[in-house]
């Protein structure tokens, strides 16, 4: 297993729809193992294959609930259904999120509170996950990556301008930019 470099906002793979996985091969199994290691080293609660430069419809996730119960897995070729979002502005204290591909920052973003995700696991067995709250947020965030959308693309105009200023200051927004979890300082 290996920690992989995480691509930053300007990399084209982050802005293009990912391709479905046709067959679960040893290469796919290795990729997923490396994604788990990278996600843990970052640390993050989710990681989509495009974030490590692979344009395939795969993401990993991990989370502990308030009782410390673990929730961890991988979804290949996911489909996502969500309950409509409640209208209004996001609560910055309760609805902020960050992204390993725009590291070191968090912005408020309204998401649907409940989702259903289906797909397959590494054995090819069906996966069906119906979750709410932060787990639903994780599912939506990672699924967005598979469609070439980053959470910063969904921000309001004011936050979007802040993102652009930060990206210019840090020299991000160009193809090929990445950082290595456990090695690079992401608080640029």
Largest beta sheet: strand ordering? 2-3-4-7-8
**Portion in helices:** 10-25%
Q: Which sequence of SSEs, written as H and E, runs from N to C?
A: EHEEEEEEEHHE
Radius of gyration: 16 Å
Number of strands: 9
Enzyme class: hydrolase
EC number: 3.5.1.88
Organism: Microbacterium candidum
Family: Belongs to the polypeptide deformylase family.
Structure overview:
It is an enzyme of class 3 (hydrolase). Belongs to the polypeptide deformylase family. It catalyses: N-terminal N-formyl-L-methionyl-[peptide] + H2O = N-terminal L-methionyl-[peptide] + formate. With 188 residues, this protein is of the alpha+beta class. It contains three helices and nine strands. The protein is globular, with a radius of gyration of 16 Å. The two termini are 27 Å apart. The mean pLDDT is 93.
């Amino acid at each position: 297993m290996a920690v992989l470099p995480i691509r930053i906002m300007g990399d084209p793979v982050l802005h293009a729809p990912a391709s479905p996985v046709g067959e679960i091969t040893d290469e796919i199994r290795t990729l997923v193992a490396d994604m788990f290691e990278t996600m843990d080293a970052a640390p993050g609660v989710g990681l989509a294959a495009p974030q490590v430069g692979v344009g395939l419809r795969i993401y990993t996730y991990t989370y502990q609930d308030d009782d410390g119960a673990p929730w961890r897995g991988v979804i290949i070729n996911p489909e996502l259904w969500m309950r409509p979002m409640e209208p209004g502005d996001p609560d910055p204290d309760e609805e902020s999120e960050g992204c390993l591909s725009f590291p070191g920052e968090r912005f408020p973003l309204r998401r649907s509170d409940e989702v259903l995700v289906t797909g397959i696991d590494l054995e090819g067995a069906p996966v069906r996950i119906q979750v709410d709250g932060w787990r639903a947020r994780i599912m939506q965030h990672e699924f967005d990556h598979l469609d070439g959308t980053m959470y910063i693309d969904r921000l309001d105009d004011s936050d979007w301008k802040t993102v652009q200023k930060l990206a210019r200051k840090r020299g991000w927004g160009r193809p090929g930019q990445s950082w290595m979890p456990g090695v690079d300082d992401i608080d640029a």
